[in-house]
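Hi everyone,

Forwarding the result from last night's run.
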Amino acid sequence: MKFINDFFKIEEKGSTFRKELLAGLTTFLAMAYILFVNSNVLSVTGMKPGPVFTATAIAAIVGTLIMGIYANYPVALAPGMGMNALFAYTITSASGYNFTWQEALAAVFISGLIFLAISFTGVREKVINAIPQDLKYAVGAGIGLFIAFIGLKGAGIVSYDPYALDKPSNVVPILGDLSSPLVLLAIIGLAITVILYVLKVPAAVFLGIILTSIVGIVWRAILEASGKAALAAGLPLLPDKIIKLPDAPYFGEFIKGFGSYDWGNFESIFTFIIVIFTLLFLDFFDTAGTLVSVGERSGLLDEEGKLKDSGKALAADAVATVVGATVGTSTTTSYVESLSGIEVGGRTGLTAVFVALFFIIALFFSPLLSVVTTSVTAPALIFVGILMSTQLGKVNWNDIAIAIPAFITIIIMPLAYSISTGIAVGFIFYPISMLAAKRYKEVSITMYILSLVFLAYFIVTTIW
C-alpha cells in the first residue's frame, strides 16, 4: 500500500485508497454505456457488434491505464461519441466519403500517430491557439445536434415522408410513428434518462440503458403472451447467457485499409488527408477541452492555469487511439464523465487504474448486446447530444462576425449529415466574415491556410 500511495501521491493530493476506488467505480458506471452504444453505432458500417464490443473495451483499458500510470490523471478514456458518429455516418457512409471500415480504421491509425508526434512538441499549443474558441464551441454543439439527430432517426422518433422520397428537394424529417412499440420504448428511455439526470442520479445514462432494457424485455413478454408477437419484433430479448469469453477483435484489419484504398489520383489522396485532419482535429480539441475541465476540478492546473504534465496526458490519448484502431474501433479520447469520479474524491491516476479494471471485467458481458437494441441506445445518443449542445450558450452570438461561421458550422453538420463538412464550411466562412468586418488581423495564419485547404477540397471534388 505504501508503494501505491507513494507512486500515485495519494495522500499528497488529499485522497485515500477508498476514495480512489469509489471514484473509479463511479466513473466506470458513468461511461459504461459506450460499450453498447459504440457497438451499435459502428455496426452500420458492416462491423459485427461482438468484435467492436471487445475492441471498445481494449481501447478503454489500455488508454485509461496509460493515463493513470504514466500521466497520473484521474481520467478515463474510451472511443468517443462524435468520433464514432463521424466514422460511421460520414467517413464510411455512401453519402459521405464512402470509405470501407478498414480504410476508416487506417485513417484513425494515422491520425493517432500524428497526435502522438505533436503531443511532445510545442505544435499543440500553436494549433489550439489558432482556432478561435467560439468555433471550438460551435463544433462541439454541432456534433451534439448531429448525434441527437442520429439517435432520433435511429429510434424512429424522426422519420421521412414516404411520399416525398421520389422528390429529393422535399425530403424533410417528420415525426415518426408514435404507435410503434420501438419508437415508444425509445421515448420512454429518453424520459427515464432525463429524469435520472435531472435528479442528479450517478451514472444516469448507463442506468437509463439498463432500465429501458428491462422495460423493453417486459413489454416484449407481454406482447408475445397476448398473441401480438409481430409487434414485439425488435424489442429487447433476454440473452441465453450473461457471461462468455470475449469475441476476437478486428486486430490488424486497418492494414487492409491501406491496401484497398484508391491512391491513384489526387482527389482520393486529398480526401484521405481531409479525413485524417478532421479526425485529428476532433480528437485534439475534445481531449484538450476534457482535460482542462477535469484539471480545474481536480487540482491539475499550475499557477498559470496550465495543465501539469499535459504532454503525458495527450500522449496517453494518442496511444489509445492507435491501439483502438489496431484492434478495430473508432478514435479513442478522454471522457468528460471522469468528472463524476472526481466529484466523489478521485484525485490521482489510481482512479483511472480502477476504471480500467472494471472495463476488464466488462469484457466478459458481451451477451448483453442482444438486450441493448437500437431503441435502447437511441436515448443515450440523444441525451449525449443534448449535453454537447449546451456549448451553444458559450458562443458569442452578439458578435455577428463570429455568429455567422459558428451558426453555419452548427447547422451544416446535421443537415448535410456530415461532421467534417460542417467544420470545413464553417472554417471557410470564418475568415470571410472577419475580413468583411475589417478584423483580418484577428485571424491566425493557420486559419487562413485551413480555410484555403477546405475551399480547394470542395473545388477539387466538384470538378472531378
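The radius of gyration is 22 Å.

Cheers,
N.
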